Amino acid sequence: MKITYYGHSCFCVETRGQKLLFDPFVSPNELASSVKVDEIEADHILVTHGHQDHVADLEDIAKRTGARLISNFEIVSYYAEKGLKGHPLNHGGKAKFDFGIVKYVNAVHSSVLPDGTYGGNPGGFVIWNDEGCFYFAGDTALTMDMKLIPMTCPGLDFAILPIGDNFTMDAQDAAIAMEYINCERAIGCHYDTFGYIEIDHKAAQKAFEDKGKELILLPIGEATEL
Ligand code: NI
Ligand code: MN
Questions:
Q1: Separation of 160 CA from ligand 1 center, angstroms?
Q2: Which of 41, 51, 63, 117 is 20 to 30 A removed from 26 (C-alpha atoms)?
């Protein structure tokens, strides 16, 4: 799977010839000014919760690309009124798509859309197919529910975890999450974008190393194969 980082929590994962775009927030992000939002491609857009720093570019990208939104019922219903096609999920449920299976799992956070509309409960995604399995946590605290993932899903090849503290887990808690989800490699997200979540990169990576885990911090605009 090829993973491209567009800053904050926005990633594109390419698998089985499909582009899965996560939490599109690029144009308001000064750190991602080199990313051309108008050129981001997507076949599916997966949104973890309704906060502005996860949906800012959703409508524009979905309308330009025709991508299908995959999110919780409330967020899919909200964007359906704006003309976006979508597939609604709720916690613990999974669905089969042409690129693989998506399971919507618990996150401990909040979720309201930018105009104040109720955004359902926040979640994360576990996605798998014959190329592998990964967990996109979304904004979340460390939670015991993460232990359910290795009990209910295939073994994880990698995870994308928030590490910025203040609104989500920090790297120390994320390293504990790696033990809960039984995973060896993570890509960090939700750090440095705002003053509240600026972090020490070396200290974050050391927190993972101390537990025998790997934390990848991708430069914005760059990609890796996992
Ligand atoms: Ni949030
Ligand atoms: Mn956020």
A1: 15
A2: 117
From residue 82, alpha-carbon distances to 48, 62, 64, 73, 116 in Å are 19, 11, 13, 15, 16
Q: How far is CA 41 from the centre of its chain?
A: 16
What's the 109 CA to ligand 1 centre distance in angstroms?
7
Predicted TM-score of the model (pTM):
0.98
CA 45–ligand 2 middle distance (angstroms): 16
Distance 114 CA to ligand 2 centre (A): 12
pLDDT digits (tens, 9 = 90+) for 131-147: 999 999 999 999 999 99
Six token digits for residue 160:
């994308």
Distance 193 CA to ligand 1 centre (A): 13
Residue 54 lies in a domain: yes
Q: Which residue range forms the structural domain that includes residue 22?
A: 2-220
